[in-house]
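Worked example 4.2. Below are the chains of a multi-component assembly; read each line carefully before continuing.
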Amino acid sequence: MTEFVLLYLLFLKATLSSFSGMTALPILRQELVLTHRLTDRQLNTAIVTGRLTPGPKGGYIVAVGQTIGGWRGATAAWLAMVTPALLVLPLLYWLGRHAKSPPVKRALDAVMLTSVGLSLTAILPLARDAIDSPAPALLVAGSTWFFIRAKVETVWLILAGAVLMLGVKMLN
Amino acid sequence: MYLGDLARVMLRAATLTFGGGNPTTAALQREMVERRHWLSGTDFALAYTLSRITPGTNLFACCSALGYLVRGWPGAIVCLLIASVPSSILTALLAAVMERLLDWPAAVAMMHGAIAVAIGLSLGSLFTLAQPYLTSAPLLRGLAFIAGGLALGYLVSPVWVLVAGAAAGYFWQGADS
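Applying the procedure described above to all two chains together yields the following structure tokens:
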């Protein structure tokens, strides 16, 4: 039980200091890799795992929990991930009353658009790493187009991408 | 609108949408704002914006806020659990076998393809999220905010980028206001 609470507090420290998908990473690395509870390879594997499943990219924390503590570690990580989420409700309660005023509405619209630019700073380095040949470049372009135009369930696109890449590897 | 309807929409978006938080958020925007009209665009922007300045995983804060706006506290709790539990179980299951999969070249190739698609989905979702706000205000101003977020994102903490965006939007009165 003590181990569970310690793991929960460790993951909570990481999630509370994070404001986007991967910003908890330096803390996890400091607390787990530098203390030899996890290797860099295991941490990277956890990050890849988080990208391959539904949900947020920050979900890799559950994979880290699973790697170091099995299902108990995964549960501690999940709990630490969802605990801060409810902090949004007091903000919503207090700020929501002013949302209809024109300057606040303009500010909300501006933050939506600024967030898009901000998200690009996280996605572009991932794209640079993933696009190492024409096939992944075509997959990135094709799935972008499909998401915008075709409104297909993304699970089918992920499966199609995996199968196409396997086919390319077999042809090579 | 019943809590069960909200739970079904959240379950579908949270467990069948790959590519990170943005595609899931875009799927929820399509369902809750454009298709079912449960929320206005302003309400959605409020939930999204506040979730970005909440510590922790933005997607879960956004789902809680959307649930709260639609069905109060029960909606917030149900949406938070549905958005987080199934995806976390899948992540933990995959993590348990991932090390072994990485020794299998065919699996590595498939993961490479899946990650490329996930990146495309993230890019597509950003377009989907931005589109309603680009068409409701002057295009150049909208593009300026996106460019500002992109440029500042490399320089300062995400929270300060969002605060700067909010301040600029609050004070910058365009031709539409």
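Take a moment to check your reading of the output against the notes. Chain A touches chain B through 103 residues (CB under 8 Å). The first helix of chain A runs from residue 2 to 16.
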